[in-house]
Amino acid sequence: MIFKLLIVDDEATMRKGIANFMDWASIGCEVAGTASDGLEAIRFLQHNHTDIVITDIKMPEADGLAVAKYVFENMPETKIILLTGYADFKYAQTAIQYDVSDFILKPTNKKDLFSSVKNAQQKIIASRKHTSIAQEEFTFLKDQLLQELTAGPFSPELAARLEQFRLPLRHYITAAFRLIPFENDISSLKKIIIGEQQNAYCYRYNNLIITIYFLEQPCPAVPSYILNNCKEIAAIAFALDSRQVAVGISHCHSGAASFGAAVSESIHALTLDFYSENNISLFSDFANNETCDLTAENSLDLFQFENSLNNWLFDDASCILNRMMAKFKTNFVNSQDAKNICTQIYYICCRVLIKKEVPSPEPDYLERIRTSSDIFTLEQTIYQLMEYTKKHFIRTIGNQSRLIDNTIKYIHENLSGSLSLESIAEHLHISPSHLSRTFKKACNESLTEFINRARIEKAKDYLMHSDILSYEIAELVGYNDPAYFSSIFKKYTGLSPTDFKQQSGKNI
Predict the structure, then answer these.
(1) In the chain, count of helices (H) and strands (E)?
(2) 121 touches 52 (CB < 8 A)
(3) Residue 82 contacts residue 71 (beta carbons within 8 Å)
(4) Where are the alpha helices (DSSP H) in 311-417?
(5) CA–CA separation, 102 vs 52, rounded Å?
(6) How far is the C-alpha of 266 from the C-alpha of 249, rounded, in Å?
(7) pLDDT over 90 percentage in the chain
(8) Across 47-61, 276-290, 425-439, least confident range
(9) What single string gives the DSSP state of each residue in 215-233?
(10) Element (H, E) at 246
(11) Going by C-beta distance under 8 Å and a sequence separation of 6 or more, which residues neighbour residue 96?
(12) Are residues 204 and 143 in contact, defined by beta-carbon separation less than 8 angstroms?
């Protein structure tokens, strides 16, 4: 940390001596500027960041105490060190009033001045730590308020707290962000959103990041700058660690009372990203859906249910269903609302099975949900639907095993060729997206990672058991650029091809 200094003195010799002939760098300081009187100093402070001001007291125009007063009233983190040739108690009294860091008598020696500056540095550091802690506490309380507003009913008490935290929920759009595949560790995603958000605020809600885009006035459609911001966030996340981001965006809402509905819309849109381009879904695209009145909590339950099924977590999916049914019974949820939510469960099961290229559940389940006469009949139908989904889902595992075997065999037989996801999928007569998802799930790594490892293993075999030159080996294992081959080889082995071969007892 470099501390910026301003040197103020009407005596040119003193001013230049302090500014130019003291080794400020040795104590982490840098002279940002000088001034010959108090007015000049104040003008400098108005336009330049300054951590510490070293100023004489007795000066024309405006004295050092005027500078101290200005800093005290406008720049509370900046520290003042006063220099004077007069041991006047009144000056000391006023200096204390303006929270002056130190009061030094002239003539000043280097040791005393450095000691005063170091003392000021410690005060600044302590103040910044306190400010940082206070900001963290403030952010925590603000996020806690938004989570309450998301999941619970609106109340005058929440309205008062919103006013306290200066959250202007007059007109806004919410966006729900999630990582693909669904993950618990979303701290890196939140950092990206914070860094890129425009007139917005974000907070964590379960394993999602909810971003509030504040608007000047209501708008019938999502503004292009919000869509571009969401795309930029997704692009940065993918560039940093190759992880995709899905985004669900709500209608425009006005007033804090509809905040929970806005978040619910964005989460609901997020669950339908399967049908969207670029993994960005607008709730307006699905506005005619029966479940527009879902709460954020309902939407989150459905979202987690779908993710559990997609990740083969059948026990988790069953627990979510049990929890939802228990809430229906405990809260005496309106029958039509309960049926609407169960209808969504049916469509989720359809989507999950269609992704696995398995026939979706019979429409009869949908009719049974619609005509259920009581909660127990509805519950039985949903559990039977869950069993059907689980049974047909598991049947795909055997098919997936054969698919993985055929994929690996084809890769090893064609290491020198162009092994793109599309070319392999075309050979196996399946869709690229299905191959990518299935391979990642079964092998715990992407297809690209597997291909690179297979090629490097084959290259190692050539290096250890043949006299083929490294650039020829690069071509034999599918790398047309020897430099790129060397880079990939070192990434996986920690050695260049030459060093690897030397350690294996041969010379290239």
Answers:
(1) 20, 11
(2) yes
(3) no
(4) 314-331, 335-355, 364-371, 375-413
(5) 11
(6) 5
(7) 19
(8) 276-290
(9) -SS--SS--HHHHHHHHHH
(10) strand 244-249
(11) none
(12) yes
Residue 137, token pair as written in the block: 């506490």
Q: Is the predicted pLDDT of residue 73 greater than 80, yes or no?
A: yes
CA distances from 73 to 67, 68, 123 (A): 10, 9, 18
Helix axes 447-465, 375-413, angle to 10 degrees: 30
Tell me whether strands 208-214 and 253-254 are parallel, antiparallel or unpaired.
unpaired
Q: What is the dihedral of CA 315, 318, 323, 329, to 10 degrees?
A: -150
pTM over 0.85: no
| pLDDT above 90: residue 372 | no
State how far the alpha carbon of 208 is from the alpha carbons of 97, 101, 318, 347, 376, in Å.
Answer: 49, 46, 21, 22, 32
Q: Which residues pair with 105 in a beta bridge?
A: 84
Four-residue CA torsion sign, 436, 439, 445, 451: negative
- In degrees, to the nearest 5, what angle opens at C-alpha 104 toward C-alphas 98 and 110? 130
Evaluated on CA atoms 133, 138, 143, 145, the torsion sign reads: positive
Q: Please give, one letter per residue, the 3-state secondary structure of 136-196.
A: HHHHHHHHHHHHHHHHCCCCHHHHHHHHHCCCCCCEEEEEEEEEECCCCCCHHHHHHHHHH
Tens-place pLDDT, residues 151-186: 778 888 888 888 888 887 899 999 999 887 666 568
- Provide the residue type at 263 as one letter: V
Determine phi and psi for 23, rounding to 5 degrees. Answer: -80, 75
CA distance 51 to 253: 43
CB 280 within 8 A of CB 272: no
Task: Report percent pLDDT > 70 for the chain.
Answer: 89
Of the chain, the end-to-end C-alpha distance in Å amounts to 50
Q: For residue 254, give the H/E element and its range.
A: strand 253-254
DSSP annotation of 278: T
Closest CA to 177 of 193, 195, 156: 193
Write the DSSP string, 446-485.
-HHHHHHHHHHHHHHHHHHH----HHHHHHHTT-S-HHHH
Within 8 A by CB and 6+ apart from 44, the residues are: 6, 33, 35, 50
Residue that the structure tokens 């309106």 belong to: 334
The letter for the amino acid at 323 is R
Q: Which helix (H) or strand (E) holds 6?
A: strand 3-8
Furthest C-alpha separation in the chain:
96
Tens digit of pLDDT for each residue in 412-465?
Answer: 889 988 888 889 988 888 888 888 888 887 777 788 888 998 899 889 888 888
User: Quick one: pLDDT at residue 498?
Assistant: 86
Write out pLDDT tens, residues 82-128.
887 765 555 655 666 677 888 887 777 888 899 899 889 888 887 77
- CA dist 289 and 306 (Å) reads 18
Average pLDDT of span 478-493 = 88
